[in-house]
Design a protein that fits this description.
single chain; alpha/beta; Quinone Oxidoreductase, Chain A, domain 1; Rossmann fold; seven-stranded mixed β-sheet; six-stranded parallel β-sheet; globular
């Protein structure tokens, strides 16, 4: 079968290859991948700028859905033909404190699809039955392939920190996670959403503004974001700042733009040191949360919200292409021409 493989520890070491089909194991199912969305992490692997190491060679891709093609021994609740969305925690220990309390996404032995184990930019993926979710009737594969990034945001804004109805929420970094954060914050009761980006983010910010997910957009290449947010909030500052960019300027803006006793949640990864005093945490009595991944209830909630039309994954999709078009898809995401590109391995 064909697969998009990162084969070396350097930039541009990604190619379409022939690889053997995986082998099903007891307690697992074989998924025929119907759609797999391109994540910013996939672009970072392509350009070799990721925050965490990956093993190579590895098939990329972790945002995916499909149809069960085969059921392994010991699987009782799933059948061939079931439409499923699949979580990213391909392997966990099942024994540690985090696993036993339901936070298996932070299991120290966790290995995720697309970097720890072979991922979904190919035709077949083997998955544990515990991480499968039924795709509701009426929800297409294109939309279901975006369940994972919506779950990242749902976890961030409903588990470690909760959006309080009436909040002014500032979202820094208008990539897919940032734009989803605008949707999610609005759904959870935010009175105003402010999306902050740079000059090369103008197209993506326009998508969020046009679809009424962002009430305000701020281009930091033209405007001081902290000053603009202060004016929007009539001097108070934002109630909640969401760092989806993962760099020093973004986190600094988050800290400086929230009100006293405000909250900051960091979703975006960034491998570089934060070169700034953190005394602002004391001066403003801030609460800062870190967040990673998602768990079972986030997936069930997001799929339900998709079905109820409370969230709009289709609005983020800029194009669907076959696996052979991966390079064009990666380029469009990398250049910010696209918000989300989706690959169709079965085409």
């Amino acid at each position: 079968m064909k697969a998009i493989v990162k084969y070396g520890q350097g930039p541009d070491m990604v190619e379409l290859r022939d690889v053997p089909e995986p082998k099903i194991r007891p307690g697992t199912v074989m998924i025929e991948v119907q759609r797999a969305a391109v994540c910013g992490w996939d672009i970072e692997m392509w350009k070799h700028t990721m925050a965490n190491p990956v093993k190579v060679p590895v098939i990329q891709g972790h945002e995916f859905c499909g149809v069960i093609a085969e059921v392994g021994d010991g699987v009782r609740d799933w059948q061939v033909g079931d439409r499923v969305a699949c979580e990213t925690s391909a392997e966990v220990c099942g024994k540690c404190y985090s696993c036993r309390t339901g936070d298996y996404q932070v299991c120290p032995e966790r290995r995720g699809y697309g970097y720890g184990v072979d991922g979904a930019f190919t035709r077949y993926v083997v998955a544990r039955k515990e991480i499968l979710h039924r795709i509701p009737a009426g929800l297409g594969f294109d939309e279901a392939s975006l369940t994972e990034p919506f779950c990242v945001v749902h976890h961030a804004l409903s588990d470690p920190v909760k959006v309080i109805p009436g909040d002014t929420s500032v979202i820094i970094g208008p990539g897919p996670i940032g734009i989803i954060s605008c949707q999610m914050a609005r759904l959870m009761g935010a009175a105003r959403t402010v999306l902050v980006g740079m000059q090369n983010d103008v197209n993506r910010m326009s998508v969020a503004k046009t679809r009424n997910w962002a009430d305000f957009t701020i281009n930091v290449s033209e405007t001081d974001p902290v000053k603009a947010i202060t004016e929007i909030t009539e001097g108070k500052g934002a109630d909640l700042a969401i760092d989806c960019a993962g760099n020093t300027p973004a986190f600094s803006t988050a800290l400086e733009s929230v009100r006293r006793n405000g909250r900051v949640v960091k979703i975006g990864w960034g491998p570089k040191p934060f070169n700034q005093s953190l005394d602002v945490l004391l001066r403003k009595s801030l609460t800062v949360y870190g967040t990673f991944g998602h768990n079972w209830h986030n997936w069930e909630a997001v799929l339900g919200l998709f079905t109820a039309k409370r969230l709009d994954p289709a609005g983020l999709i800029s194009g669907v292409v076959p696996l052979a078009g991966w390079h064009e898809a990666f380029e469009k995401v990398h250049s910010t021409q696209a918000v989300k590109m989706v690959l169709a391995p079965n085409q």
